[in-house]
Amino acid sequence: MSNFLTSSIGRKFLMSITGLFLVMFIAVHLLVNLLLIFDDSGELFNNGAHFMATNPLVKIMEPLLGLGFMIHIIWSFFLEYQNWSARPVKFNQRKPAGSSSWASRNMLVLGSLVLVFLIIHIINFFWVMRFNPHTMGTVNIGGVEMEDAYTLVSDLFKGSLLYCIFYIIGGILLGFHLSHGFWSAFQTLGLSNKNWLKRLQFLSTVYAVIISVGFTVIPLYFLIKF
Amino acid sequence: MADKILKKLNIKVWRQNRASEKGKFETYTIENISQGSSFLEMMDILNNELIEKGVDPIAFDHDCREGICGTCSLFINGRPHGPDTEVTTCQLHMRKFNEGETITVEPWRARAFPVIKDLIVDRSAFEKILQAGGFISVNTGGVPDGNAISIAYEDAEESMDAAACIGCGACVAACKNSSAMLFVSAKVSHLAKLPQGRVEAKKRARNMVAKMDELGFGGCTNTGACEAECPKSISILNIARMNREYLVARFSE
Ligand code: HEM
Ligand code: SF4
Ligand code: FES
What is the pTM of this model? Predict the structure, then answer.
């Protein structure tokens, strides 16, 4: 097993495992976030956020998630650098458009832009909720005192067109990243065959559209309604 | 119907004397090329003219000129084997080009395929990968009965499809990562699909991938460009199979 993680397929193995882990996380994350737009009083979302913040399983997953992100990001740069250096003299003319999708050729660019989004996103919400909860207001829902995450989130979107646009772009970028990433991860793990390749590629598009639309709908909702 | 004549073409081609020397593009003009001629015939005509002018002819690889040997290897107008699908450079016709066009011709570019001269690259890296595991070790003895080992129709078909790979290297050239995964996976698959090849399947996948990495090819990011540009339409499903074989081999060590 010694050199597994530095072999070409081993490197990809790590990318796909962490990628699929993030795929599952993003789906849960979206489900909770969608509570934002189904109840303007904020009760629904605050309950959801409170549940996520106090659930022991989520507590265990949190550091794992951080680790998953770190490995995925660090490995992606390492891997793309090695791939890039496999061609020291570049072609003078290249027409790759007919033979591969744009997203598949720009995974690092898309991923890096998602990273920029992620950092600002963490500063916006996660950091405040996790490390400065005293700066947030509290609400009492059904006798339980909890942080008012709804106000934190909705105020950001209600107060700033720029942030709305920023979050919409973030959702779209992530969608493109996933439109290739989702099926690519299965292919890397060898979990595709004659029947499943086409199905996985189709599912990949469906998943990417759901994630993209789901995340862009939230800022759009606040933008249009308030 | 007589073929149309292309009155004038500009051929922008990579010239490089030897591996250690820096190369550069040179543009030559060529006249009256029939659209019915093949790309390599056009190159032959150009070379004749160069020789008559006392210029060193352009070196390029070719042998069978019927799409089976895999030696011809030109990157034409931004695509391996030029602007046609499912053909090798020797099967490419001049009817794919237009009057007055400038045609850019480059060698395969990859660290593992260094240029020897002009458009010829050293593809012995592929041979080294084959030597690392692209074979079956058998005890020579009496000829076995042809029907003794039965093989399912599907398996035989998939094996033969993978065996269609001619080792041309277009997959490496097409890939943004210069990955040799399509080639290696075709070689791993055509043996892994047959009972004779199963015996050494794990060792084969491990050794061929290790050799591929050692020779400086990039890794696969599943863009699918290789399959689209492969003259034999080798499927990326072979890559999934090789990944599976390799992961199973490594995890069962
Ligand atoms: C935050 C910054 C991120 C960066 C810099 C990044 C970078 C990359 C890169 C360069 C690849 C291509 C690797 C390859 O195709 O071999 C990739 C693949 C992938 N990414 Fe990301 N990514 C990021 C975030 C995410 C997120 C948030 C998700 C999921 C929600 C995700 C899911 C995936 C998946 C599933 C793959 C496919 C793995 C494979 O091909 O086997 N990525 N990422
Ligand atoms: S897989 Fe296709 S492109 Fe690659 S070497 Fe074989 S025949 Fe050529
Ligand atoms: S010369 Fe043999 S395949 Fe083209």
Answer: 0.94
